[in-house]
Amino acid sequence: MLLAVDIGNSATKFGLFEGDTLTEKFSIPTKRNTSAGEIKRDVGERLGSVESAIVCSVVPELEGAMYEFVRNAIGIGPTFVDNYFDFGLKVNYEPLESLGTDRLVAAFSAVEKYGAPCIVCSLGTATTIDVVSESREFIGGLIAPGMDAMAEALHAKASKLPKVEVVKPESVIGNSTNGAIQSGVYYGYVAMLEGLISRIRKESGISKVVGTGGNAVSVSADLDGIMTVDFDLTLNGLGILAKR
Q1: CB-based contacts of 160: which residues, under 8 Å, 6+ apart?
Q2: Active site residues
Q3: Do 142 and 179 sit in the same domain of this protein?
Q4: Is 57 part of any domain?
Q5: Residues 123, 215: contact at Cβ < 8 Å?
Q6: Does the pLDDT of residue 25 top 90, yes or no?
Q7: Which of 122, 153, 123, 119 is closest to 138 using CA atoms?
């Protein structure tokens, strides 16, 4: 059995593969100053009989603890994916080291499953939208705030505005401060995505859009069907990379 781990800014996702099939998945909160012992406590007994592991991370502070946890749990250290893996993509990004590895894994996975060309949206703590051409060239993309970051920024920069739970409000027009913030963040985020995807489609000539990440499911219904949501895109990409 293969263990795939996607260390994100807010959550760390674990996937267990038997052959090509993702048989189980779960997540724990990402804690930057955690230890291998704390990861073991959060994961519990859910790993089963794992023989190998592969990890994608955007949180360097957590990588040492994750390596130690996996090595202790299965007897061998995990493989950490970096930007020099063979993704089967020509990567047009400068400098390559500055590109988030999660963006490459998601783009690779989208091309493997849905084909090229495609636009890949990862909607989490940050919003990234990347473009892969018909010739499998990773052209580049953009980075914008996620919904939680938008809400936190309002609270941090405006003393009288409370921090609110980011949920879809019943109405665009809020009749309370909390409701107005929720509406502005949620529908503002949806409008931002619609506008960015529209501009990228116009500039690239690519129509296919694949979305993943914690906010993909919640907003996809309000994006008028322009996005295919694949919540397991990164985990499945790691599973394919492990076979290589």
Answers
A1: none
A2: 102
A3: yes
A4: yes
A5: yes
A6: yes
A7: 119
Q: What pTM did the predictor assign? A: 0.93
Same domain, 135 and 222: yes
Annotate the chain with three-state secondary structure: CEEEEEECCCEEEEEEEECCEEEEEEEEECCCCCCHHHHHHHHCCCCCCCCEEEEEECCHHHHHHHHHHHHHHHCCCCEECCCCCCCCCEECCCCHHHCCHHHHHHHHHHHHHHCCCEEEEEECCEEEEEEECCCCEEEEEEEEECHHHHHHHHHHHCCCCCCCCCCCCCCCCCCCHHHHHHHHHHHHHHHHHHHHHHHHHHHHCCCCEEEECCCHHHHHHHHCCCCEECCCHHHHHHHHHHHC
Q: Measuring CA to CA, which residue among 45, 47, 44, 63 is closest to residue 55?
A: 63
Same domain, 114 and 32: no
Residues 109 and 229 in one domain: yes
**Interior CA angle at 49 toward 45 and 55, to 5°?**
85
pLDDT confidence of 240, banded at 50, 70, 90?
Answer: very high
- 44-100 confidence digits (pLDDT tens): 989 989 999 999 999 999 999 999 999 999 999 999 999 999 999 999 999 999 999
What is the domain-level CATH number for residue 142? 3.30.420.40
pLDDT in tens, 153-183: 999 999 899 999 999 998 999 999 999 999 9
The Cα–Cα gap between 81 and 71 comes to: 16
When pLDDT is averaged across residues 207-236 and rounded to a whole number, the result is: 92
